[in-house]
Amino acid sequence: MAQRGAAGSRRVSRVRVAVRLRPYMDQQDEKGEGPCVRGLGPQNLEIINWRNATETLQYQFDVFHGEQTTQQEVFLTSVKPILPHILNGQNASVFAYGPTGAGKTHTMLGSQEQPGIIPRAVKEVFKLVEDQEKEQDGWEYSVGMSYLEIYNEKVLDLLSPGSQDLSIREDKDRNILIPGLTRTPLSSFTDFDTHFIPASLNRTTASTKLNQRSSRSHAILLIKVVKSLRGPPHRQQTGKLYLVDLAGSEDNRRTGNQGIRLKESGAINLSLFTLSKVVDALNAGAGGRVPYRDSKLTRLLQDSLGGSAHSVMITNIAPEYRYYFDTFSALNFAAKSKQIVNRPFVRETVLAPMIAPGKRAREEPEAGGSGEPQNKKSKEGKKAERSSPPPVHPHSSPDSSVLDRLLALEKMMMGSAERERLNLLKTVVQSRKEIQMLKEKQKELEDKANIYNKQNEAIERESKDALLFKTDLPPLHRKQSTTAKPRKQQAVVTPLQVSQVQPLQQCAVVCKPSQFLDKKKKRIQTEVCEGKENGGVDPSPADDINWESRLDSALLEQSRKKILQTLNSGSLKDLKSLQLIGDKKAKLIMGWREIHGDFTQLEDLKKIEGITAKRFSSFIKANILSSMGK
To answer: For the ranges 136-150, 376-390, 606-620, which has the lowest average pLDDT?
Structure first.
C-alpha cells in the first residue's frame, strides 16, 4: 500500500525569463536597414518604437543573451541552477518560445559541434545522480525518458511512431498523465543518445519561405528521476524535467503557407494564442478561470505555468526589421510571463512495510515477559486469536492473516480521512444540484421576461406608428418653412453681390488680417478675395487646377524652395506652422527624415503615410498663397 507523504513545505518560485538574440544575417536583409533591437547590458535590451522611429522601448529580464553568447553560457546561466531540484522530488521545466526562424530548435537541440540545452541537461542529470549515489548510502536512482509531439492538436509518441492520438488525463493528486506513452529506462547518457536521435527524426518538419527546416509541431521531452530508499520506511521521491521546444508563431503572408502547411500554421498559432490567454489569466489572479484545457499544449504545460515546477522560459528573437512585429510581440509575452508565480513541492511516496509471519510469534513471548497488566495482555491475546486464521494444515501459508492485518491497518490509517472526504463529496454534489435547480429557475424567469419585453416593444411600435400617421395629416409646419426660405436665401446671397473689381494687391491687404484666424476661416477669406477679383463669379474647376499659371514664376519658385527648406531643416514647431500640417503629420515627416534623409523635391512628401496626391496639391497651394500673402 502507498501513502502520499508531505515532505517539505511549499515555497514560491517565480518563472525565470531569459531572452536570446539571434545573430544578424546579412544575406537575408535586402534593404540593409540594420538591427531593430540591441542589448544594453546583462539584463536589459531596447527595441525601436514602431509608432515613433526616434524613440526606443526598453525591457528588463532575468538574463539577456546577446548575439555572441555560446550554448554553454546559456546552459550554465539559465538551465543548470534548476536541475538539482529534480533529485529532491520536485519538477522543473525549460521551454523555448519565439517566432519562426528565431533559433528555438538550435537553442534546445543544437548541433554535434555545439550541443543545445537538451543534451547538456540530460548529461548533467546523470552526473548529479552519479554524485548523489557516491555521497548518500541507502538510496538508489532510476532514470527514464518519454518523448512526444503535439501536431495539429494531436499528441503523438515519438518513441513509438506507429501510435495514434494519445489522451491526456489527470489523477487524484492533480498530476498530468498520458496513458499509453512510452517510458524508456536509461542507464547512461549514451543510452539516452541511442533513443533520442532516432526519435527526433520522427518529428514533423517542413520548409517555408522564412525557414528551410521549420518545426510544424511542439516537442516535449520528459526526463523522470525516481529516488528510492532501500530500507524502511521505504520512501520514494519522484522528480520530472520537462524540456519543451515550441513551434514558432507564423504570419502566413510572409511564410507563403498553403494547403497542409496553412492548416499546421493555424493549429500552431491557436495553441500559442491559448498559451497567451493562460499567462494573462494567471497575471490577473483573483481566482479566475485559467484556460488550461483549451489547448493540449497548455494542458501539458499546466505544471510549468502557475503549477509546482521550477520554470525557465528562453525567448528567442531575431534582429532584422522584417521580424520586427514578431520580436515585439515575443518581448511583450516574455515580460508578462516573468510575473507568473509557481509553488514547487516535494513529491514523496511512503510504502507501508509488510509484516513477516514469524515476527508476530516472536513479539508475543516478549510481551509476556514485560511488566504490563494481566488484563491488557489477555485482551490482546483475545484480539490475536480472533484475527488469526484457523490452522488448516501444519505447513499452510499465513497469507490470510497478513492480509487481515493489512486491511485493519488501512482502515485505521485512512478511516477518518476517508469519511471526511466522502462527506465533503456528498456536500459538494448536493450543492451542485441546488445550483443547477437555481440556474434552471433563473432561465425560466429570463425567458418569461424576454417574452414580456417583446410584447411591450410590439405594443410601443404600434402606438408610435399610429402617432406618426396622425402628425402627418396637418401640413401646417411645412407651409411655415416654405415662407421662411426666401429670407435665408437673401441672407446668403447678399454678400456675394459685389460687381466692383479690386486689384490683387488690394485683395492681399484685405486678406492679411486673416492669418491670425484658424485655417478654415483663412481658406474661406482667400476664396472670397478670389471671387472679388473675378468680378463676383466663383472660380471654375479649371482655374483651381491652373492656379500656378496666374502667379509669378520667380515668386512661385522662391516659395517652393522655402517650403522645401522648412521640410528638411525645420523643427517640430516649424513643421506645424505650415498649412495643413498638424502634430501627427509633423512627427511623420521628422521620422521619414531620420530614416531616408532630406527631401530632394516637394513631391517626395507623397511618400509619407496619409498624404495623397490631392492632399499634396492642397498643401502646396495653401502654403504658396500664404507665403505670397505675407
So the answer is: 376-390
